[in-house]
Write a structure and sequence with these properties.
The complex is a heterodimer of chains A (about 290) and B (about 625). The termini of chain A are far apart. Chain A has one domain: Rossmann fold. Chain A has eleven helices and twelve strands. In chain A, the strands form three sheets. An eight-stranded mixed beta sheet of chain A has the order 2-1-3-4-8-7-12-11, sandwiched between helices. Chain A is an alpha/beta fold and about 290 residues long. Chain B has about 625 residues and is α/β, with parallel strands linked by helices. Chain B has four domains: about 190 residues, Pyruvate-ferredoxin Oxidoreductase, domain 3; about 180 residues, Thiamin diphosphate (ThDP)-binding fold, Pyr/PP domains (Rossmann fold); about 80 residues, no CATH class; about 110 residues, Rossmann fold (3-Layer(aba) Sandwich), CATH 3.40.50.920. Chain B has an eight-stranded mixed beta sheet, sandwiched between helices. Chain B has a seven-stranded mixed beta sheet with strand order 9-8-10-11-13-12-19, with helices on both faces. In chain B, strands 16-18-17-20-21 form a five-stranded mixed beta sheet, sandwiched between helices. Chain B is globular, with a radius of gyration of 27 Å. The two termini of chain B are about 20 Å apart. The chains are: A alpha/beta (about 290), B alpha/beta (about 625). Chains A and B meet through β2, α2 and α11 of A and β7, α8, α9, α10 and α11 of B.
Chain lengths: ~290, ~625
């Protein structure tokens, strides 16, 4: 891979996030990933939904489409169909991905379209002042629901790459996101990365412990476990439900036996959006109705 | 019972009995013979059972509407004749008149003899054809599929109507071209029906219209057929659609041609996904479109505003049916005009086009893509079930009348000067005409930022009051520019059409699918010596205010005809042109206007207001 890009090449506006927000980590890691993979800014597109984290495209010099709540995934899908030659990343919060956009999270992976979806998962709606999100524990600020389980849902929805990382371990995040982008680049299809973070303003404490301390203590890197096989979906399901003392991070599942949608339909070498912009002769269609 | 010109044939039966096939075959045969056909179906929201009926009306001259009476009724089951106590049907016996013909299988029926005595006394001629027995005998001990009784009934019909058997058989073979054995079986069954009628009803009543001596080059197709063709014509690349009656079939028609034309088709999880996939594809530079009905459109609403503020060119076809909610899912209404006009929060530029028949649908859908891309905004084409699913006969569209017009893209030189200045691309550059030039994603060293938030020229979020005003004004200027284009190219877009004498004192106003029946009404009125004109409004936004004013002119009596409850276009005219209609004729029973229904209501209205005695 070329190294002609540096992190500074991806700099753009100064973020408006709260000081100390995990979104800064995600932003910096993305720049690092793009630079180290040699991805030219103009060949990357980030599509985001709505929320603090979804403002990310405004703070990085790659193509960015900041859209509406919950719809980053289908927009990214349409974009990738039209321009499969570009690296397309969709990003949204836990409300975006697992709440209002849950219908897309359950279905877009089934298409195995080659996009990376990053979920900024902090258990809270920050921008609207701290309401519980779909991944909030039951009882949190009046939450009547049990928390949404991103990993098993992603597995069931047919994502061919399913991983988890967190903002307290930027090196791990860099590794996982890179692997996710590679999975897509190699034509294997949809990659999902659940990024556990906190909301420094509205959800900084996990079960009485500071976020960083809580997860640092429990962090369990799947890729350091010689017995863990990410190609085995039953292991992935089992690990997805491990909670409490152990906080598994890393690649839960990687299926390299499937072709990405854009590969299967041979769109990559002939992107629909780059085909000639011209009128088509439809007499053959009209003649059917003679 | 007053009869109008042409012949009205009907097939009735439960869903699943193959009424569409026969009606469509007959329509095609008639067109091949040189006739003009108008064919429309009424069906229920179920897969099997219930009561459906398909009308085929034809004449030697163009016609654009159906009538309620029936000259030839092919009744495949008892409810088609006498109803089923009103659960699904009241039957069509009351639509028959002295001189009508009924094709019916009495031996497989429970309809009482008195019904037939009564029909006879009314001068209705019955072809009692044992369609079930003929099918059983034809199967010769093999597997019996009673659905094919429809083809026997078709054979009797073509005999009664005196149609050319060779033409009929070639049309059947064409329809089943992919399966030769099926084609031949159908030809045979048709032949059995035809021969049975000929041999057993030597003096039977036949209703024969001589074909016209010259054949015009016409098509017979529905609005949905032409929507698909129009989209392909305009260079469609990505199409997303979730099934919803009466728009569903557009997807099927595109599927038939997607490989040849390189169109990517997707049926995702919901209309939310549909519109957003299209927005993503269009954002990436591909011509993308979607189709739905009112309910699906409601789900698309929020994303439509995103396309508005982020200036993404998308085309949305809305084929309406009666609401609210699921309403009458397979029926007819023009009830969504305000919904499509006002979908999504806040103001954003858009165009709303209202084609009046399949011929217009072809060009309007194709032009919708031009408009969407030239002005970088959503364009909605709204028609209804009556246009979507009825077969019209219309001149073969000259595809060259549509000219591909692209959006404004930055030139290589302009891109170079942005790079040299060390600047970034301004996705929302403020320009005089409001149109900010487009740039392809992936352009060397330049990136695009866009957002559904208010933004500055670069697509950065802004909350500044001055930048908000600048961008709102910029977006609105696109509409001003488009309005100028509509005026300058009036004859290309035809936002308003006038039929009949331009200075007639009676102006009938309509939009969308009422066009056909109003045109046929004009003809009847002129036979009655009543001078009227028809003003067809084809754009809801931007509203062609001046054109509407001048089309209405000094008309003394302005009557608007709408297939809805609350007079949506009437309100739009009042709001935009400050013109009050004198009277309105509305219909909201979920059925389209038939010719005699409209004629009767029109004449009684004229009597009421003493225009005629």
């Amino acid at each position: 891979m070329s190294t002609k890009y540096t992190i500074r090449d991806y700099d753009y506006k100064k973020p408006t996030w709260c000081p100390g927000c995990g979104d800064f980590t995600i932003l910096n890691v993305l720049k690092k990933v793009f630079a180290s993979m040699g991805l030219p800014p103009h060949e990357v597109v980030i599509v985001s939904g709505i929320g603090c984290g979804s403002k990310l495209p405004h703070y990085i010099r790659v193509n960015g489409f900041h859209t509406i709540h919950g719809r980053a995934l289908p927009i990214a899908m349409g974009l990738k169909i039209a321009r499969p030659d570009l690296t397309v990343i969709s990003i949204g919060g836990d409300g975006d991905t697992f709440g209002i956009g849950a219908g897309h999270f359950a279905n877009v992976p089934r298409s195995n379209i080659g996009i990376v979806h990053l979920a900024q998962n902090n258990g809270v709606f920050g921008l609207t002042t701290g309401q519980p999100s779909p991944t909030a524990p039951k009882g949190f600020r009046g939450n009547i629901y049990r928390p949404f389980q991103p990993i098993p849902v992603a597995l069931s929805a047919g994502a061919t790459f399913v991983a988890r990382t967190w903002t307290g371990n930027p090196n791990h995040m860099e590794y996982v996101i890179k692997e996710a982008i590679k999975h897509v680049q190699e034509g294997y299809g949809f990659a999902f990365v659940d990024i556990i973070q906190y909301c420094i303003t509205y959800n900084p404490v996990i079960f009485g412990e500071p976020f960083i301390t809580y997860y640092k203590k429990r962090e369990y890197d799947l890729q350091k476990d010689p017995n863990y096989d990410p190609s085995d979906i039953t292991m992935a399901y089992k690990m997805a439900y491990v909670d409490g003392d152990k906080f598994p991070i890393g690649i839960f599942y990687r299926d390299t036996s499937q072709k990405a949608l854009e590969v299967e339909f041979d769109l990559v070498n002939d992107p629909p959006a780059l085909r000639p912009r011209e009128a088509r002769d439809v007499r053959e269609i009209l003649n059917k109705y003679k | 019972m007053r009869r109008f010109r042409g012949i009205s044939w009907m097939i009735g039966g439960a869903a699943g009995l193959g009424i569409n096939t026969v009606a469509e075959l007959l329509s095609k045969v008639l067109v091949r013979e040189g006739f003009y056909v108008f064919a429309n179906i009424e069906y229920e929201s179920l897969i099997r059972g219930g009561h459906s009926y398909y009308r085929v009306r034809y004449d030697t001259r163009p016609l654009n509407s159906h009538v309620d009476y029936v000259d030839v009724l092919l009744a495949l089951d008892d409810p088609s004749l006498v109803g089923d106590g009103g659960e699904h049907s009241d039957g069509h016996i009351h639509e028959l008149h002295e001189g009508s013909v009924v094709i019916f299988d009495r031996e497989s029926s429970r309809v009482e003899d008195e019904v037939f005595d009564e029909l006879e006394s009314r001068g209705v001629y019955v072809y009692d054809v044992p369609m079930t027995r003929i099918v059983r005998e034809a199967a010769a001990g093999g597997k019996v599929n009673l659905v094919v009784r429809n083809m026997v009934g078709f054979g009797v019909s073509t005999y009664v109507l005196g149609l050319d058997k060779e033409v009929v058989e070639s049309v059947i073979r064409e329809r089943f071209a992919k399966k030769e054995a099926v084609a031949e079986a159908n030809v045979k069954l048709h032949d059995l029906g035809y021969k049975y009628a000929m041999e057993n009803f030597r003096d039977g009543r036949r209703i024969i219209l001589d074909p016209p001596s010259t054949k015009d080059e016409v098509l017979i197709a529905t609005g949905n057929h032409m929507a698909a063709a129009g989209a392909v014509r305009a260079g469609l690349r990505v199409w997303a659609q979730y099934p919803m009656t009466p728009a569903s079939r557009i997807y099927r028609y595109l599927e038939e041609v997607k490989d040849k034309y390189g169109i990517f088709l997707v049926q995702p999880e919901s209309e939310l996904a549909v519109i957003n996939i299209a927005i993503g594809a269009a954002f990436a530079g591909a011509r993308a479109g979607v189709a739905t009905s009112g309910g699906g459109f409601a789900l698309m609403t929020e994303a439509l505003g995103l396309a508005g503020i982020a200036e993404v060119p998308i085309v949305v076809i809305v084929a309406s049916r009666p609401g609210p909610s699921t309403g009458l899912p397979t029926r007819q209404e023009q009830g969504d005009l305000r919904q499509v006009l006002h979908a999504s929060q806040g103001y954003y530029p858009k165009a709303v086009i209202l084609p009046g028949d399949p011929y217009e649908v072809f060009f309007d859908v194709a032009n919708a893509f031009n408009i969407a891309w030239k002005y970088q905004m959503p364009v909605i084409v709204n028609y209804d079930k009556h246009i979507a699913e009825s077969f019209y006969t219309f001149p073969y569209p000259d595809q060259d009348m549509y000219v591909y017009e692209d959006g404004k893209w930055l030139s290589e030189e302009e891109l170079k000067s942005i790079r040299e200045a060390g600047d970034n691309y301004k996705r929302f550059k403020v320009t005089e005409d409001g149109i900010s030039p487009l740039m392809d994603l992936g352009t060397e060293d330049l990136v695009i930022w866009s957002t559904g938030n208010e933004h500055n020229e670069y697509g950065d979020i802004t909350e500044r009051a001055d930048e908000r005003v600048v961008q709102m004004d910029k977006r609105y200027r696109k509409i001003e520019t488009f309005k100028r284009e509509l005026e300058e190219r009036f004859n290309y877009y035809m936002p308003v059409k006038v039929y009949g004498e331009p200075d007639a004192e009676i102006a009938i106003v309509g939009w969308g699918s009422t066009k056909g029946v109003i045109l046929d009404l004009l003809e009847l009125l002129s036979e009655d010596g009543i001078n009227a004109k028809f003003v067809q409004i084809r754009f809801a936004y931007p509203f062609p205010t001046e054109a509407v004013k001048s089309a209405l002119g000094d008309a003394k009596l302005k009557i608007i005809v709408e297939n809805n409850f609350d007079g949506l276009m009437e309100g739009l005219i009042r709001e935009n042109a400050l013109i009050e209609m004198d009277y309105s004729i509305r219909k909201y029973d979920g059925r389209p206007f038939s010719l005699e229904y409209l004629y009767d209501r029109f004449i009684s209205l004229l009597k009421e207001v003493r225009v005629v005695g």
